[in-house]
Design goal:
The protein is mainly α and about 400 residues long. It is about 80% helix and about 0% strand. The chain has 15 helices and no strands. Helix 6 runs antiparallel to helix 7, helix 10 packs parallel to helix 12 and helix 13 packs antiparallel against helix 14. The protein is globular and about 50 Å long.
């Protein structure tokens, strides 16, 4: 197995495990609502998103300063496994419900800070700027399958063996994945990894300040876009359970709809390589808004499924599109810090802000009306897209 294939294989395993936790807490909210006020649960969701977003900047700096990507990625997955254990204990020892719940939230936020900027760097350096978005797309497809199957697996395990035991089984698999990732990526060393194409311009030394305006603008757009996405997806299981009156139907619709992004990630990764990040973000943003509009417009199971499937196909493409776009513009020596800024601050902290807005809104206006208001944030971010540079825009490096 060559190094490129190794990088893709083990980062995909890491991404599968990492994104398998993306809908874990939203699904758990359905079960926690019998024990904990929903406003408290919304506040906890904000906490882990903020922790993840802010810590990812520190993780990015640590990674760029050293050569420990395999250790950091496996550490992140291990911490996520620990968070699953804490959630399991919160159900098993109800007298310590809030203590274990808070511990699980903090560990979830810390664990989710690691993979995305690190995995994108490993793949970008292994495949080069031009081929990296396609590799990121394949990697993201594996992640999407993890995100898709986990709601169904969780609900099924909970029904068969109980919530605490079911979460315990999931944690064992995640600890095993962390160990495999550590040894599987041990071959990767930054100083030995040569990109296939897109190397830096000879005779010029890049400085990150030359890319600050681009990164700031992209981060703001992603921040507003993520406010919409995370605000609505965090409470989508609760909304669907209310509309469909069934946890089982909710888990099936959620999982099957999320499977569409398994195909969407490689398609949009290839499109980013071909047409550039600006074009691809514009297309995915437009049709995700259309899909979510359809999702909210009716209570018909078939129409809801179609709308949410279109939304997830278009919206859950951020990994190859956003980080592929950054890789097309920013030199690789700043890759992890740049990825951390766009993903950590823009995508994750923006998501926390969206959850906060939704948590404030829905006690007063209801689940559905709050989602309509959140849709406005997606429209605002879409209107800002023309400000971004095209694929052919060349940023000058500083000598």
């Amino acid at each position: 197995m060559n190094n490129g294939l190794k990088a893709l294989t083990f980062t995909s395993l890491a991404h599968f495990a990492n994104d398998g936790t993306a809908f874990m807490f939203p699904v758990l909210i359905v079960y926690y609502t019998q024990l904990v006020p929903v406003t408290v649960l919304g506040s906890l969701a904000i906490i882990y998103e903020v922790i993840s977003g802010l810590l990812s900047m520190r993780v990015g700096s640590l990674a760029d300063a050293g050569d420990r990507d395999n250790s950091l990625i496996s550490l992140g997955i291990g911490i996520l496994a620990g968070s699953v254990v804490a959630f399991a204990l919160s159900f098993m020892f109800r007298q310590y419900l809030y203590e274990f719940l808070l511990l699980g939230i903090v560990m979830l936020g810390i664990g989710q800070a690691f993979y995305h900027p690190l995995g994108a760097t490993v793949l970008s350096q292994s495949f080069g700027r031009e081929r990296a978005p396609s590799a990121l797309g394949l990697n993201g497809a594996i992640a999407s399958s993890g995100r898709a199957v986990m709601p169904f697996v969780m609900v099924s395990l909970f029904a068969i063996i109980g919530i605490g035991t079911g979460l315990g089984v999931i944690s064992i698999y995640m600890f095993a994945a962390a160990l495999a990732i550590y040894f599987g990526l041990k071959f990767f060393h930054r100083e030995k990894s040569k990109p296939v194409s897109g190397s830096a311009i000879p005779g010029k030394k890049a400085q990150i300040g030359a890319y600050r305006s681009f990164l700031l603008l992209l981060t703001i757009i992603v921040f507003i876009r993520s406010m919409f996405m995370m605000g609505v997806t965090t409470f989508a299981p609760t909304y669907l359970t209310s509309v469909l009156s069934s946890k089982s139907l909710m888990s099936i619709l959620l999982s099957v709809s999320l499977l569409t992004s398994v195909f969407g990630q490689p398609i949009f990764g290839y499109l980013t390589s071909l047409k550039g990040g600006k074009f691809t973000i514009s297309v995915s943003s437009l049709f995700s808004v259309i899909g979510f509009f359809i999702f909210l417009f009716t209570k018909s199971f078939i129409v809801i499924f179609f709308g949410y499937a279109l939304f997830t196909f278009m919206a859950f493409t951020g990994f190859p599109v956003l980080l592929g776009y950054v890789g097309q513009v920013v030199p690789r020596e700043f890759s992890t810090r740049s990825n951390s800024m766009v993903w950590g601050v823009g995508n994750t902290v923006g998501g926390a802000a969206g959850i906060a807005v939704y948590t404030i809104l829905y006690p007063y206006i209801g689940l559905a009306d709050a989602m309509w208001i959140m849709l406005l944030f997606a429209i605002i971010s879409g209107l800002m897209l023309p400000l971004l540079p095209s694929k052919d825009k060349k940023y000058e490096t500083v000598t």
